[in-house]
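Q: My labmate handed me this sequence with no annotations at all. I'd like to see what the chain might look like in three dimensions before we decide whether it's worth expressing. Could you predict it?
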Amino acid sequence: MSWSIPIGTVKGTEIRLHLTFLLFLLWIGAAHYAQGGWDAAVQGVLFMALLFLCVLLHEFGHVAAARRYGVQTPDITLLPIGGVARLERIPEEPRQELVVALAGPAVNLVIALLLALTLGGIPAPEAATPQDAGAGLLGRLFWVNLFLVGFNLIPAFPMDGGRVLRALLAWRLGFARATGIAAQVGQFLAIGLGLLGLFGNPLLLFIALFVWMGAQGEAHAAQLREVSRGLRVADAMVTRFES
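A: Here is what I predict for the chain of 243 residues:
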């Protein structure tokens, strides 16, 4: 992905940091500094860094599950909106895609359980607000990981829930038809989020655009795969040249 820099490699998967992510951290630091000085700025940046560590572990959950089925992951890119693991291919066997899709949220659930054990119980609901620096750091991480589980299981592309829905539908309808239905569900959800965003929450408009584009891209990729199935490379090559 352009505008990203490599920061390390883990078992053949390169970890890349998009430059907008660094700008995002600077913005978080500046916003917290304006509220509470340097201590608040450091706490804000530290919390976001730990949050994206959880996002990175989420992506490595997908990577580990995909490798079980012979699918390699060349790289993972960290963006301000989350992480993107670039799989060489999407498994078309429904059971395999279901396992790969659920592996990421499962990692966040395990992290939340470990944090609850460390804290000696479930943190108070007041810690569920990430911006509240008064709440404990680990408590906020607990609730954010639970949020990531729920958010990623929304049945819409490009979230994991869209792939879960497609895998469940594909058992009866086939890959192409299941992709079309899951993409339509995602686009209807995007319209609903966009309408809600018009009434005072601009962030929902951004999420709606993200979901719409993800659903549209997934449907297009499935259609292209279906049309090109069975074709050879020679069928697409130019073999006659004229000067």
